[in-house]
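User: Hi! I'm working on a homework problem where we have to compare a predicted structure to a textbook description. Could you give me the structure for the chain below?
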Amino acid sequence: MFRKTLILGLFLLLSQFLYAQDAIIDSEKLNKAIDYYQQAKADYDIKTYDKALSNFLLAYELNPNFSDYSYGVASSYYELKDYENAKKYIELTIKLQTGQADYHLKAGNIYFKLKDFRKAVRNYEITLANLNPEHPINTQSCYYNKAVSHYYLKDYTNAIHDLSVLIEEDQENYNAIHLRAVSYLRLGKKEDACIDFHAAKELGNLKSQEYIDKHCQSN
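Assistant: Happy to help. Predicted structure tokens:
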């Protein structure tokens, strides 16, 4: 009986020792990941995206359950124009933490570059539904890319809606005004289109004159 108790005690002590060792190793890995991440952010800030990518990947490999690391990898691939790998890592990021506006904005931009406009629209919608003042984003670029995505999907009504939101915020955004004009034209709303073409031209959009010559001579 004493022998069994002694063996059990030794086993428990060994288990506690091994657990403590694992905790030390895990702590070292996590701290090393933080170091790589901080260096990666510094590299990213000065636009040395290849170095940033290497360090984000090292951080991610040490701690793949922290969404900021995979997001850093995705962002670096995006800046390096490797959109397929950017897609892979932004999808991993969103699996770890969905509903965060900046993550979905990046996803929208990646899908936009890959011409997957339906997924782009969906992620822009999630972005705008989850705005957080602690993580400010450029809503104008979000609305514009969302509008362009709708346009390529031939959803001109929603394209016009998004562009109108933009134009209300910035009445001199001639690219948005021009695209809204083209969207009106696609819906057969020639009068509205021509008003916008003339406004865009006055603000400096050079393409608008071609549409005016073709569609608005009587306006």
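For your comparison, note the following. DSSP finds eleven helices and no strands in the chain. The domain at 18-137 is CATH 1.25.40.10 (Serine Threonine Protein Phosphatase 5, Tetratricopeptide repeat). Good luck with the assignment!
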